[in-house]
Design brief:
Elements lengths: L5 H9 L7 E7 L7 H21 L4 H21 L7 E7 L4 E7 L6 E5 L5 H9 L3 E6 L3 E8 L2 E9 L14 H31 L4 E5 L2 H7 L5 H6 E4 L8 H32 L4 E3 L1 H9 L3 E7 L6 E3 L6 E2 L13 E3 L2 H11 L3 E5 L11 E5 L4
Parallel strand pairs: 5-8, 8-9, 11-15
Antiparallel strand pairs: 1-2, 1-4, 2-3, 5-6, 6-7, 10-16, 11-16, 12-13, 12-14
The chain binds zinc ion.
């Protein structure tokens, strides 16, 4: 199934077996950056690393057998179906001993990994979800109102309301008295209709967990409608749509995605700008991979800011979980460090583990001149 909601992740993380472990398998399947052969090879390598992990694990025969069946089933799936996979990533959760199997298509590439644990390893899924904003879009005119949910590049109509407030005052009446009366009647009707829309908007907003609110209506209605919105919604109102209720959902989606991209870029520029000025005045910030990892290891990081698609191999201490660019021994415990494929991804996970915020900036940005990674710090030692 397609990853699309937090409930999916919550439900998935509820699965737990008392007698068996669950295998979590994440694979990058992005055909724009890898050939089919490369994808097949990386899946094979990942499964074989899983098998060697399994050999070294000490546990009951039943537990081992369950994992071994997971690996066989994942292997079978990958060899048959991987070439028809059209999304950027794949996540499989399997616990054969309990007859549990769930598969997710991912809109963003994960780091390849295989993990055996008490329950499904869902952190990469929530990281992917966090990258996408959930947008609530409303379009209305005097005939109709439509509410949409836009998420991960998809749109769905939540609800629509048809009211048809007459727009013209009909001819007739004595000395225009009648027409004035009708005019007032129309204005009241329109106001009630706007109130109804505003109320429905808040109800729908409360029910779903939206991040941003986009609104599309004729300019002449804005000043009447906006004050009717709940204050909370006003703060979430991030953009105005040109789309009208008569437009297709595809058109609303296209316009919204364009606006989302623009807004995200603005937010990214803003945070990078803030980081750079903090760095320049020698405040609570750091930059560059080595320094950022050091601050992260020390627990100084408040917000980690990294460039999307930036990756570099590095090392990790098996005991302290400290991350390094090239230390062969951990300076803290003297243990030999282990290589990791992508130390930035490990840093993101470590930051999330420590309840730090993580921001991903799409290149090019000013961050490129500061080693593509940096952080705001809680304190500095
Ligand atoms: Zn160590």
């Amino acid at each position: 199934m397609k990853l699309s909601s937090r409930e999916q992740i919550e439900n998935l993380s509820k699965f737990k077996s008392d007698s068996f472990l669950t295998t979590s398998f994440y694979l990058k399947t992005d055909k724009s950056s890898m050939t089919k052969k490369e994808i097949a090879l990386s899946s094979k390598n990942l499964l074989s690393s899983g098998r060697s992990q399994l050999e070294q694990m000490e546990m009951s025969k039943e537990k081992k057998e369950s994992i071994s069946r997971d690996l066989k089933r994942i292997n079978l799936f990958c060899s048959k179906r991987l070439s028809s996979q059209n999304l950027s990533g794949l996540a499989i959760f399997s616990c054969s001993g309990q007859d549990f199997w769930e598969l997710y298509n991912l809109p963003t590439s994960p780091q390849n990994r295989i993990i055996f644990d008490q329950n499904p390893y869902v952190r990469p899924l929530s990281a992917i979800l966090d990258q996408h904003k959930r947008i609530f879009a409303l379009t209305f005119d005097r005939r109709e109102a439509k509410w949409y949910d836009i998420f991960m590049g998809e749109i769905s109509l939540l609800e629509n309301l048809v009211e048809d407030v007459p727009s013209k005052v009909r001819e007739g009446g004595w000395e225009g008295y009648e027409s004035k009366r009708i005019e007032r009647h129309v204005a009241t009707h329109l106001h009630d209709y706007f109130k109804k829309i505003a109320q429905k908007t808040f109800e729908l907003f409360k029910k779903n967990h939206f991040d941003w609110f986009f609104l599309g209506c004729r300019e002449k209605y804005c000043s009447d409608f906006e004050p009717l919105l709940h204050p909370y919604l006003k703060t979430r109102l991030k953009a105005w749509l040109k789309a009208m209720p008569s437009d297709s959902a595809a058109k609303v989606l296209k316009e919204s995605l364009g606006l989302e991209k623009k807004l995200k870029k603005e937010k990214e520029d803003e945070i990078v700008h803030k980081l750079v000025s903090e760095l320049e005045k020698g405040g609570l910030a750091t930059s560059g991979l080595k320094r950022t990892l050091r601050s992260l290891n020390k627990g100084e990081v408040q917000t980690l800011i990294t460039t999307s698609y930036f990756s570099k191999p590095g090392r990790i201490c098996p005991k302290c979980n400290f991350l390094f660019v090239d230390e062969l021994r951990c300076p803290s415990c003297e243990r030999k460090t282990n290589p990791v494929v992508d130390v930035i991804d490990e840093a993101v996970e470590a930051a999330m583990d420590k309840n730090c915020q993580v921001r991903h900036v799409i290149p090019p940005s000013k961050l490129d001149r500061f080693g593509k990674i940096g952080a705001f710090l809680r304190y500095k030692t």
